Amino acid sequence: MRQSPHRTLVCVVAEGGCTIRDDAEVGTTMLPQVEGPLGTAGRPRWPVGVLEVRRATVLCGPRVRPFLSMSVRVTFGGSSQIRWEGELAEIITSEHGKVVSDVLGEISRSQEVVKFATSLALHLKGEYSEQVSTGVDVYSTRQPVGVVGIISPFNFPAMVPMWFFPIAVAAGNAVILKPSEKDPSAAIWLAKLWKEAGLPDGIFTVLNGDKEAVDGLLTHPDGRAISFVGSTPIAKYVYETATAHGKRVQALDGAKNHMLVLPDADLNVTADAAINAGFGSAGERCMAISVVVAVEPVADKLVEKISARIKTLKVGDGRRSCDMGPLVTAQPRDKVASYIDIATADGASVVMDDRGIDVDGDPNGFWLGPTLIDKVPTSSKVYTEEIFGPVLSVVRVKSHRDGVELINSGAFGNGTAIFANDGGAARRFQNEVQVGMIGVNVPIPVPVATFSFGGLKESLFGDTKAHGAEGVKFCTQLKAITSRWLEPSHGGINVGFPEND
Question: pLDDT tens across 350-385, in order?
Fold first, then answer.
């Protein structure tokens, strides 16, 4: 569990590449680094490492794209489900701290992207127009962009990287994955699967490190694209730095997700949804519901039902059939807890304060129980800032329109939900709200992999979202070919602008 210091992983330089060792050796292609502990490793030797990947990219390209697509299928579709739900789930729960049920959901959603990637030929089709002029055909093709860098966060160490790399590899690219230094072992496990499947060295690379490693990905001229998920300030930095160095970027970032509850909603269903969406994964989700917007007169009853459900939650070691685990480290735990004092100072009503909760786990863990705060002023930092922890706020409004205006007035536009039995009101909500992912009686509206994931406004830097059709577009570049096969009798000189005839 995340109750003890990070394990020390070392990157050991080897001929033609590098391997990570952690007791038992785990084989994977790595960017060469100076030997040292995770997060404090010496400076990556970028010219050597990236040139290895660049050579691999030249080799993989469109000519062997069918092989790479098959590699995705063999590696992730053919591996035993027992390994995914056994080995990988244990790694994530032990290192991150989230409960096993949440990890299994993460793994399931990861595998959705794999299934999408293995059918990528359907999504790489170009267009063909015959005889646009005399003997002239025009058609288009999608080809890989080259080296794709992925910078992933700690909260979903398997799912977030897999939003990107199955599609990137199946499309013919090479990938450098920079996992969070807080929980990198899932990335190493995934690399081991690639190695077992025979993926050529350099196609998939795990790069451990901190900001220095990230900056190398953002600035090195051999990189062509960057996929990032994380906080808004870092997303802005990633976007500005990488685009300044000529790269395409998709940077998915902060959120403040609202659940609008209309008076006709089923309050028992709504209260269950608020608990699941607010406190699952200890609130460390970019799609967590952090604000319940209650249209009067339902607020008092809804708060009462949510409070009753909070009292039934079991907090503790994720391997012990608990409902909620610890936060990932002490620093975010302390920061999240500080918002409870801010709420009191701002005049909100702290209904449930579980900072001293009894847990079924090591008492030295980074624990913070589920917290419910009612009547939160919209001027409070508790409302305006992304808390990223198990704190659920309630804001009361007079009408559906007031609720939509409140949601649209915020800086973020990642996810939102409406709970109602009025279909017309729900339809109006989905058309008027300025948010990228919307749930109608669905509290966490993460789309399936055939659709694209991403928000609006300050929840997305760049104009391309993750997986689905937009993920394919991001990992490929479009070429248009104009072709004419001349008859032997054709000839003559014409220096004018070409015309269609």
Answer: 999 989 899 999 999 999 999 999 999 999 999 999
* Strands, sheet with 415-419, edge to edge from the N-terminal-most edge strand: 349-352, 371-374, 391-397, 289-295, 257-261, 415-419, 437-440
Radius of gyration of the CA atoms of the chain, in A? 25
> What is the rounded distance in angstroms from the CA atom of residue 248 to the CA atom of residue 239?
9
Instruction: Examine the pLDDT at 52 and tell me if it is beyond 50.
Output: no
Question: What average pLDDT does this structure show over 287-303?
Answer: 98
The torsion angles phi and psi of 123, rounded to 5 degrees, stand at -100, 0
Q: How far apart are CA 256 and CA 234, in angstroms?
A: 17
Among residues 478, 365, 363, the alpha carbon closest in space to that of 4 is found at 365
DSSP 3-state of 246 = coil
| CA 467 to mean position of chain CA atoms | 10
Give the contacts of 287 (CB within 8 A, at least 6 positions apart). 255, 257, 277, 414, 415, 437, 444, 445, 446
For the chain, the average pLDDT equals 86
**What single string gives the DSSP state of each residue in 4-24?**
SPPPP-EEEEETTEEEEEESE
Distance CA 397, CA 381 (A): 18
371-374 vs 415-419, strand pairing mode: unpaired
Can you give the pTM of this predicted structure? 0.87
Q: Is the pLDDT of residue 102 over 50?
A: yes
d(CA 430, CA 428): 6
Is residue 77 within 8 Å of 70, Cβ to Cβ?
A: no
Catalytic machinery residues: 286
Q: What's the pLDDT score for residue 84?
A: 82
Contact of 327 with 295, CB cutoff 8 Å = no
Which class for 356: exposed (0-12), middle (13-18), buried (19 or more C-beta within 10 A)? Answer: exposed
Work out the burial of residue 451: count CB atoms within 10 Å of its CB; fewer than 13 is exposed, 13-18 middle, 19 or more buried: middle
pLDDT tens digit string along 120-145?
888 988 999 999 998 999 999 999 99
Alpha helices in 61-127 (DSSP H): 65-72, 81-83, 89-96, 100-117
| Distance separating alpha carbons of residues 262 and 420, to the nearest angstrom | 5
Predicted local confidence at residue 439, as pLDDT: 98
d(CA 407, CA 422): 19
